[in-house]
Design a protein that fits this description.
Mean pLDDT: 91
Number of helices: 8
Distance between the termini: 60 Å
Structural class: mainly alpha
Number of strands: 0
Largest sheet: none
Radius of gyration: 30 Å
Strand content: under 5%
Oligomer: single chain
Order of helices and strands: HHHHHHHH
Length: 199
């Protein structure tokens, strides 16, 4: 029983790793598959995966038909808008667009990449500020808890130690607040740099 379950899991994992289903191999609509891959910005080299997977089902895919569909799909994909979206997503440059289709896509990608980089600077600084503010909140809670203990502490040396501990935490908070101030200046500049790109 256990062996059968393991076999089912293994087969399902192999199916999940497959680039194309058995039915798609047998159907053999290579033109539509090429169009869809081209529209998604896939490289035509993905066809090799189909060859490998369909060979397991005794099917030989038609590269010429696939390539015709792929070229048609790229006409849809390789434009300024898709290039910009690709750049804004922080992806590496897509080399699927070549020849006359390439310049428009590249221009869009470069603009999208500028947006992505400027947005990342804003997000990184904002995240750093939020992290320091969160640390300060935790320190404030720690100081409050220490003050509660100081209020009831009868032993003079223990009370002094708690006061010193609270002072150290306040000093740490001061340092965080200064850093937050510096980061807020940087954030304002980063947002000003990002604003013209965020159209």
């Amino acid at each position: 029983m256990l062996r059968r379950m393991l076999m089912v899991i293994l087969l399902s994992q192999l199916a999940a790793c497959s680039s194309i289903s058995k039915d798609e191999c047998l159907q053999g609509d290579w033109y539509s598959l090429g169009v869809n891959d081209g529209k998604a910005g896939e490289l035509s080299s993905k066809f090799r995966e189909y060859q490998k997977d369909c060979a397991d089902h005794g099917v030989m895919p038609d590269f010429k038909t696939y390539q015709q569909g792929h070229s048609q799909g790229l006409v849809f994909f390789c434009d300024f808008q898709h290039g910009e979206a690709w750049g804004r997503a922080g992806k590496d440059y897509n080399t699927a667009c070549t020849g006359k289709l390439e310049p428009s896509f590249r221009q869009g990608f470069q603009q999208g990449q500028r947006w992505y980089k400027a947005k990342k600077v804003v997000d990184d600084i904002a995240a750093a500020i939020a992290d320091l503010q969160n640390r300060n909140l935790n320190l404030r809670e720690d100081i409050y808890a220490i003050n509660q203990r100081i209020a009831v502490e009868q032993n003079a040396s223990a009370r002094a130690a708690l006061l010193n501990q609270a002072d150290r935490l306040r000093y740490q908070m001061e340092g965080y607040n200064q850093e937050i101030g510096r980061l807020q200046i940087r954030l304002a500049q980063a947002e000003a740099n990002f604003a013209p790109l965020n159209r």
